[in-house]
Amino acid sequence: MNLNENDKIRLDKAYNLFMKKYGNNYTKQQLEYINSKYLKDLNEQYIDIKNTMLQIYTEIGLFSDDKNIYKAILEKLKKKHNIYSDILEVAGGSFPIMSKYIDEEQQKIGKGTITVYDPQLITDKLGNIILIKEEFNEKINVKNYDLIIGISPCKTEELIIKKANEEKKEFFILFCSCIRNFYDNADYEYWCSYIYELAEGNYPENSKITIDYLDNIYNYDLPIMSKVYKK
């Protein structure tokens, strides 16, 4: 991605405002990483940019709407599920931009809620989002949610599916690149088969699982797995 001088001035201003508001809530290690990467990783594919940076870049307006990966994910989500319901996002990241977009949509018609879990949240107020600065675990009650989502939620995909199936809840997961990096090709294919069988759960006849992908312009070739229940 090539930036002209005006772009850099605009982004620097937005970045400085963002860091002034939220910077003190990052750990020292995170701040060092952010400052070392800022505008230096733009030639990497979306899949290789860490979520921390991708969320910041999105919030400060680096990407136009047609290149905004989170808006592309939101459109996929809207086609599969009712976003004006009670939604839980797992591992939403330090600045949960996906939850922010969902909240903005919900506020337009005054319907739905969005809750996000992440132990590294850097804010306790963001729109109407219910922010819980904790790690999602198997003891958390998901009965009151209609839909559970995970956007590159690292290694919590399996837990999301298990918890959703326990309470017969819909889910939507964009898989994280760390899974593929962790396994070799054969093991990765086995893992994908295992996850699909896990997703089917005990109610395969009452539900539908779909596999989808983001458009090629995002260079993110890992699947989106979605499960809906027949009405």
Please tell me about this protein's structure.
The protein has about 230 residues and is an alpha/beta fold. It folds into two domains: about 5-65, no CATH class; about 70-230, Rossmann fold (3-Layer(aba) Sandwich). It contains eight helices and seven strands. The protein has helices at about 5-20, 30-35, 50-60, 70-80, 95-110, 155-165, 175-180, 185-200, and strands spanning about 85-90, 115, 130, 145-150, 170-175, 205-210, 225-230. It has a seven-stranded mixed beta sheet with strand order 3-2-1-4-5-7-6, with helices on both faces. Helix 4 crosses helix 5 (about 95-110) and helix 6 (about 155-165) runs parallel beside helix 8 (about 185-200). The longest helix has 18 residues, at about 5-20. The mean pLDDT is about 90.
Write the layout of secondary structure elements.
Blueprint: H1 5-22, H2 28-37, H3 51-59, H4 69-80, E1 86-90, H5 97-109, E2 113-117, E3 130-132, E4 147-151, H6 157-166, E5 170-174, H7 177-182, H8 185-200, E6 207-212, E7 224-229
Parallel strand pairs: 1-2, 1-4, 2-3, 4-5
Antiparallel strand pairs: 5-7, 6-7
Mean pLDDT: 91
Low-confidence residue ranges? none
What is the number of independent domains?
A: 2
CATH H level, superfamily name of the largest domain: Vaccinia Virus protein VP39
List keywords for this structure.
231 residues, 41% helix, globular, 7-stranded mixed β-sheet, alpha/beta, 7 strands, Rossmann fold
